[in-house]
Specification:
Elements (H helix, E strand, L loop, with lengths): L1 E2 L16 H5 L15 H4 L4 E3 L13 E2 L7 H20 L3 H7 L22 H12 L8 H18 L3 H19 E2 L2 E2 L2 H17 L5 H11 L3 E4 L8 H13 L5
Antiparallel strand pairs: 1-2, 2-3, 4-5
Helix pairs in contact: 3-4, 3-6, 3-8, 5-6, 7-8, 7-10, 8-9, 9-10
């Protein structure tokens, strides 16, 4: 089915300013909010396709796929970069099984539409293929650290060449974080590790994208990242969805208005 992102799915705008101590006490069980008000931020978001029949569980995904035919190149690259950030972090943490599906995005035919047009920007697919082979062959991440660094640097360079409005990209990433985190965490438990990990990866990409943003935005993104207590590895007690949603909303409200 097709859905539209809603960056405030559980809280009103006023709740974005409530202190984190109050938010921790909030339930993370989704609530109906049919009376939600549309904002300029919401109207700028991009719909994507959800297919619940896909892969889920450890290191996988909940079977969703962005409509890469309509998603602008800078946002496609941000989306792919989020998966790569999650995959490389999991690989370095000694979790190759969880890392593998995330690291398919730069190399597999399944995700080919994500990569449309990026070769001309200097994308070096061979680096990512080497990383994927090393992972499949059971090599430790430490043994190929130079290749992991090269993969990160190449994707960062491609994103820089692709350009794009950083505010639009950040809004896209924030909306995607809520979408993924809300799937990954239900009733106070990580129920889809892949989506939980994706959300962390998008937060890391947001940090890189926000380098020229106001200090309050950069500070709040750092606070957001800390809500994943062990980076992308699923914890026993994840941060409540309401807490993540409220902080994301605050970040979006403090972004420069174009």
């Amino acid at each position: 089915m097709t859905i539209k992102y809603k960056h405030i799915t559980r809280l009103g705008l006023a709740a974005a300013f409530i202190g984190s101590a109050t938010l921790v006490a909030c339930s993370d069980k989704p609530k109906d909010d049919a009376a939600e008000t549309k904002t300029g931020i919401e109207q700028s978001t991009t719909p994507h396709e959800m297919d619940k029949g896909g892969e889920g569980g450890e290191g996988g995904e909940a079977g969703h796929a962005m409509d890469m035919d309509v998603l602008p190149l800078p946002k496609r690259l941000a989306f792919m970069a989020g998966h790569v950030e999650a995959g490389l972090s999991l690989y370095r943490a000694g979790e190759p099984k969880m890392a593998s599906k995330h690291l398919l995005h730069p190399v597999s035919e399944t995700h080919a539409k994500e990569r449309a047009g990026i070769d001309k920007l200097g994308f070096k697919g061979g680096i990512f293929e080497k990383v994927s082979r090393a992972l499949d062959q059971g090599q430790a991440a430490a043994d190929i650290e130079p290749q992991l660094i090269a993969a990160e640097k190449n994707l960062d360079a491609v994103r820089a060449k692709a350009g794009g409005d950083p505010v639009e990209i950040l809004n896209f990433l924030m909306n995607t974080i809520i979408d993924e985190y809300s799937i990954g965490v239900t009733d106070g438990t990580v129920t889809d590790a892949g989506e939980y990990q994706d959300a962390w990866g998008f937060a890391i990409v947001a940090r890189k994208t926000a380098k020229d943003m106001p200090e309050i935005v950069k500070t709040d993104i750092e606070t957001l990242i800390k809500l994943w207590p062990v980076s992308p590895i699923p914890p026993a007690h994840p941060a409540p969805v309401a807490q993540v949603t409220a902080l994301v909303s605050k970040i979006q409200l403090n972004l420069p208005k174009n």
